[in-house]
Amino acid sequence: MSKIKIALISVLFGFSSLMTQASETKPEVLGVLFYADWCGSCKVLDPAIEKARGKSDLDNESVLFVTLDLTDATTRHQSELLANSLGLSELYAKNEGATGFMLLIDAETKEVVTRLTKKADANAITAEIKGAIAKVS
Q: I want to staple 83 with a disulfide (CB 3.0 to 4.6 A). Which of 40, 92, 111, 131 is the partner?
């Protein structure tokens, strides 16, 4: 019976250790898209970002992609709450509802590393994101 207890404790300890490691994983860069469904620039930039994410496997990099949807009052409110929870309240307020761009932000310092616009294609977006990760690492 004591061997079973020891084995169970070992398994639980190992699981607890794995859970602690997983919960400590944090992004180095935040990719924050200021978006609205009526925004012409968003209609160009958003598909380019999605293409870059799929083509270059950016979702497995140390970047957290976040969309702040400013389409209407409800999505704006939810986006403000999300920005506040990420420690980006000043950045959210500073941009005063502007859309059509993505900011690459140092997740620790909350400083903007670079700004992506509709002029960037998937290759440029990939390069900028990888460059931002390298810069803050």
A: 92
Measure the CA–CA gap between 18 and 119, rounded to whole angstroms: 42
Give me the residue label for tokens 């999505």. Answer: 75
Question: Six-digit token pair at 16?
Answer: 């607890």
Residue 76: the pLDDT is 96
C-beta of residue 29 within 8 angstroms of C-beta of residue 63: yes
Q: How many helices (H) and strands (E) does the chain have?
A: 5, 4
Q: Is 25 left (phi over 0), alpha (psi -120 to 50) or beta?
A: beta
pLDDT per position as a tens digit, 50-93: 999 999 889 999 999 999 999 999 999 999 999 999 999 999 99
Gap between the terminal Cα atoms of the chain: 49
Total domains in the fold of the chain: 1
**This prediction's pTM:** 0.81
